[in-house]
Design brief:
Strand order of the largest sheet: 3-2-1-4-5-6-10-7
Structural class: alpha/beta
Distance between the termini: 21 Å
Strand content: 15-25%
Oligomer: single chain
Bound molecules: alpha-D-ribofuranose, calcium ion
Length: 307
């Protein structure tokens, strides 16, 4: 039976590849794409999601959500992904129209309408998901599982010494989600750095697979430079795609159950995921990926792109 996904995204260059992986995988059905401000302002994220959906020949509905975090101003990552979020390579990322309805309401209606059947995959700040939970706390019990690209896991932060961007951008929303009782698995930035970094040869192999391969690689133009110079990687990494791969096939990941919380406020710890690795007197409320089989991830990516 096909896995039913709802994908929440702040669509930029890695989110788009994750969308391609889901939209082109015959084993999953995407019920809806909900969009949140994060990497880029909301209107750009919506256009990027619609462009990517159309490129995949899909008619999946796309809904706009929050244009800002719960309790603070939006701070984007356009310095990482480009002003348009898609590598600033001149794609026609305008003029498309999202479906009627707010993302948070769509999340509630979809999850509550099919209790236990929806896998929620979050690729951006958790502002939409937190808003939905605050409006209808019961979705925490109704969702099948929530796979979250978020947190630094066992590694360093990418937007501060401690924090990963999705949790840093809206730490209050991230705390609402991890404390909601919703069953979740974090796929942190440490998994991306360790298992989803692509050098020139790997990138060329994917690009050679056809038009979708060219799209998936060419939109990494800005982040590739950022990854090399700021993150000291051999090339761009793909945090959202590896999280999507785990959501599509959880068997490719090793996960551990622990108590997980998120630091809020504006100090040095803003957005830091607090994982009780040694289970010091705390009950676990979530899981965190500690390993992902890169070959399995790359197979899911290349099969989607080459199809
Ligand atoms: O820290 C990586 C995350 O932040 C990814 O989801 C990327 O798209 C950005 O949103
Ligand atoms: Ca993202």
């Amino acid at each position: 039976m096909s896995r039913r996904l709802v994908i929440d995204t702040d669509t930029a260059s890695d989110d788009a590849v994750a969308l391609v992986m889901a939209l082109r995988n015959p084993a999953v059905t995407v019920d809806a794409i909900t969009v949140v401000a994060g990497n880029v302002p909301l209107d750009l994220a919506v256009q990027n999601a619609l462009y990517t959906r159309d490129l995949c020949g899909s008619a999946v509905p796309v809904y706009a959500g929050r244009d800002a975090p719960l309790m603070r101003a939006l701070e984007t990552a356009q310095f990482v992904h480009g002003n348009d979020g898609m590598g600033d390579i001149g794609l026609p990322l305008s003029g498309r129209t999202p479906n009627e309805g707010h993302a948070a309401d769509v999340l509630i209606e979809t999850v509550m309408g099919s209790p236990g059947e929806i896998t929620l995959v979050t690729l951006g700040p958790l502002s939409n998901v937190a808003t939905a939970l605050l409006r209808e706390p019961q979705i925490a019990n109704a969702v099948g599982h929530c796979f979250i690209m978020g947190g630094a896991g066992a590694g360093p932060g990418n937007v501060s010494a401690l924090a990963e961007f999705n949790f840093w951008a809206d730490p209050e929303a991230a705390r609402v989600v991890v404390r909601s009782g919703m069953p979740f698995t974090l796929v942190g930035w440490d998994m991306s750095v360790r298992h989803a970094t692509f050098g020139p040869d790997d990138a060329a192999r994917i690009r050679s697979l056809g038009p979708l391969g060219e799209f998936c690689i060419d939109i990494q133009a800005v982040v590739d430079d950022y990854a090399r110079t700021q993150s000291h990687l051999i090339g761009f990494d793909l945090p959202d795609p590896i999280a999507m791969a785990v959501a599509i096939d959880p068997g490719i990941a090793t996960v551990e159950a622990h108590h997980i919380d998120v630091m809020i406020g504006d100090g040095e710890g803003r957005g830091k995921d607090i994982i009780d690795w040694l289970d010091t007197r705390r009950r676990d409320n979530g899981s965190v990926a500690t390993h992902v089989v890169r070959e399995a991830f790359v197979t899911l990516l290349t099969e989607a792109v080459a199809g």
